[in-house]
Amino acid sequence: MSKPVIIENTVVRQDAFGRYCLNDLHRAAVAQGKATEAQRPSKFLRGEGIDAFVQSLSEAQKRASVNTIRGGLESGTWADELVAIRYAAWIEPAFEVQVYEQFRDTIKNANGMLTEQVQAGLAMLAFYKQEMRIAPSTMPGAMKKLQSSLGMPDILPAYAADTPDGCMTGSSEVTHSLTELLSLHGKPYSAISAFRRLQLLGITERKSRPSSKAPDKEKLFWSLTEKGLQFGKNLTAPDNPRQTQPHFYDLHFPRLLALMLNGAAS
């Protein structure tokens, strides 16, 4: 949320479309002795040329540039920035300058805050990807959440390819969990014993995160190492995005089994 516009200790409210409350501007001007009680927004909107200006602006933006609400907490006249500045000029030129500068400073501050938030978010995602070796397919979802939290438009693709080194298909390989693949291949390993074997081979590693139920305790989970990424990918766990859930490429699982059984790839 952007920093509120405050003029002469009067907060100029905005609605969901970013339109400013002209009644708040009027109160701020009256408090400074720059406007009379008669210079209300309703009188301004009846002025010569204002209706045509408002209509042209509404058509250009494909939405109402002025909205008047009667009754309730949001009662008043709400207008886009251009209309608000024109209203300030109608009240008094010096007030127009004051309002314009306040709008400009507020936007500048908001842009600065947004830049800091974007940088912090990207740094967090970079750390997340590096430390947890998250698969590319999970990153668009994380970026979309970052965009949404910052109120930014969604410009990212919904899909990214995950492929092992040397893959020439250009698309994601089919993967399954270790439990599913062990069952499919009928090998005498439980999932936990298989993970421990892969840990000895440097393919998986044990990581931890604070427990959501008991912050003073740790929750352990498995993650593929850099070496292990040739055999699979790290997905974010569905029950907690702060931990990984290894999935293994179906096509490369026979080679991985040979490595587990013999200590060397066949």
Helix content percent band: 40-55%
**Radius of gyration of CA atoms, rounded to a whole number:** 30 Å
Record field, number of beta strands: 10
Q: What does the average pLDDT come to?
A: 82
What's the helix count? 9
End-to-end C-alpha gap: 57 Å
Global geometry: elongated
CATH topology of the largest domain: Mlu1-box Binding Protein, DNA-binding Domain
CATH class of the largest domain: Alpha Beta
**SSE order, as H and E?**
EEEHHHEEHHHEHHEEEEH
| Number of domains as seen in the coordinates | 3
Q: What is the CATH architecture term of the largest domain?
A: Roll
Spatial arrangement of strands, main beta sheet: 3-5-4
Largest sheet: 3 strands, antiparallel
Class by SSE composition: alpha+beta
Beta-strand percentage range: 15-25%
Low-confidence stretches: none
Describe the fold and architecture:
By secondary structure, this protein is α+β, with helices and mostly antiparallel strands. It has 3 domains: 5-107, Roll (Mlu1-box Binding Protein, DNA-binding Domain); 109-149; 175-262, no CATH class. Helices cover 44% and strands 18% of the residues. The protein has 9 helices and 10 strands. It has helices at 22-31, 41-45, 50-61, 81-91, 93-132, 139-149, 178-185, 191-200, 253-262, and strands spanning 5-7, 10-12, 20-21, 66-69, 76-79, 175-176, 204-210, 218-224, 232-237, 240-249. Strands 3-5-4 form a 3-stranded antiparallel β-sheet. Strands 6-10-9 form a 3-stranded antiparallel β-sheet. A hairpin with a 2-residue loop joins strand 1 (5-7) and strand 2 (10-12). It is elongated. The relative contact order is 0.08.
